Amino acid sequence: MKKSLIIPVENQVREFDPKLLLACIAARRGFSALIGSRWEIDNRISSFPRSVYLSKSMTKRGGKLFQIMRKVGHEIVAWDEEALVHLPAETFFSRRISPTGIKHVSHLFAWGQDNADLWRQYPHLSSRTPIHITGNPRGDMLRPEMRDFYAREIKAIHKTHGNFILINTNVNHVNAFYPHQNLFMPVKNPGEEPRFGKAAKGMSREFAEGLRAHKQALFDEFKKLIPALAGAFPDWTIIVRPHPTENQEAYHKIAATCEHVQVTNDGNVVPWLLAAKVLVHNGCTTGVEAYVMRVPAITYRPSVNEYYDNGFYRLPNLLSYPCFTFKELRLTIEKIITGELGAADGDERQSNIDRYLSAQNGPLACERIVDVLETMMANRSELPKPVFYDRMGGWSVANGRRLVKWLLSYLPNSHNRPEFQRHKFPGISSEALNEKIKQIQQIIGDTDALKVEQLSNVLFRISA
């Protein structure tokens, strides 16, 4: 049978390159891999041939779509994009996993042992659902053999920005692209109790209020940090990379008053980490990525809340040098710049990353995932075919959903609005895509050209 794989991408700058690596490896193994905007794919889900759909989450919203997918004949496998640096178990389950959604998932792919153990605590996980500790394609892009993929970007970054200190912010809970995406909605009248925003779904009010207070304190501190670093290191550029779903306005206002501060979200963060002299963050996944690639990283903790710092952000903070005051931060950066201090290391750090992230060596995570997919398909002549009634029902609901999404795109502040979707997935030209594929094939030693069919500016099909 023709093996078809659907690889949706929600956030282009973070997810596209690693998922493209997966698509290339799957294509070479006989799969027809559809890759592109998750919003576009999900809106057209009933129009694709029966496929294996690789989901990045199993939330309540996704669970409703999973029901449609199963009715039209797709099989669903999944990982969780947020399971490397994750919430405490109870909050993670209520926010990230839907009992309805997970029952439609046939296979789970874990970042590492910690992720697998987390899922096994979930009370609605069927004992028949296998968990494969494969690692994740994002982890593949951190491996030494993948460095050449970013060589041109690193060179271009150095040419444009020179020597720089990288600040990655992670306060999208209180500084989201749209206000309703924050932990709490803006109140209309003073004294009103704010309603939950999108970021608080699945959280208790106590947890969300505490997280908001902690994140707001960090947001305020980082806004003071940026000009302070620019003043302390006048010969260095300060690059600020906000979280992909953050509103960048506050940072641009600061940059307008500081000569050597620049704000950008261009491209994947990996080449920026490799080009930077040092990373400054607080509880950000980039702290994990920097550690794996041996880039010096500092977790700046001027405001401390051990409940969240250890219960949510423990891993990136543990893998970085901790600094609690600006003076301590400045001195640590000076040591890194002079070469006195390299990347953070030590047995405790290494044992933690080994538990959280598999496939740091040996076969790529992408190869391990495709191994599982091949085994899934090996004894099947085709994917299970839904009965006619279910397929027509699924087709009807899918197209009704598409109409609703189109109508919602006209509402202000809707995540269905075209400008927000372009913010998350701006698209890629066929020329740029083919260049990326060529680089990937050179790195993995694949000498035969792959076929690329462009279905739209945000949707492509890759096959051998």
Total domain count: 2
Helical/strand content category:
alpha/beta
Alpha carbon gyration radius: 22 Å
| Sheet having the most strands | 8 strands, mixed
Distance between the termini: 15 Å
The percent range for strand residues is: 5-15%
Spans of at least 5 consecutive residues with low confidence: none
Give the overall form. Answer: globular
Q: How many helical stretches?
A: 20
- Strand order, main sheet: write it out: 6-5-4-3-1-2-14-13
In the CATH scheme, the class of the largest domain would be Alpha Beta
What is the third-level CATH name, the topology of the largest domain?
Answer: Rossmann fold
Salient structural properties:
Rossmann fold, 2 domains, 20 helices, single chain, eight-stranded mixed sheet, alpha/beta, six-stranded parallel sheet, 464 residues
Structure description:
The protein has 464 residues and is α/β, with parallel strands linked by helices. The chain folds into 2 domains: 3-142 and 361-463, Rossmann fold; 147-356, Glycogen Phosphorylase B (Rossmann fold, 3-Layer(aba) Sandwich), CATH 3.40.50. Helices cover 45% and strands 14% of the residues. β5 (105-110), α6 (113-120) and β6 (131-133) form a beta-alpha-beta unit. It is globular, with a radius of gyration of 22 Å. The model has no long low-confidence stretch (mean pLDDT 92).
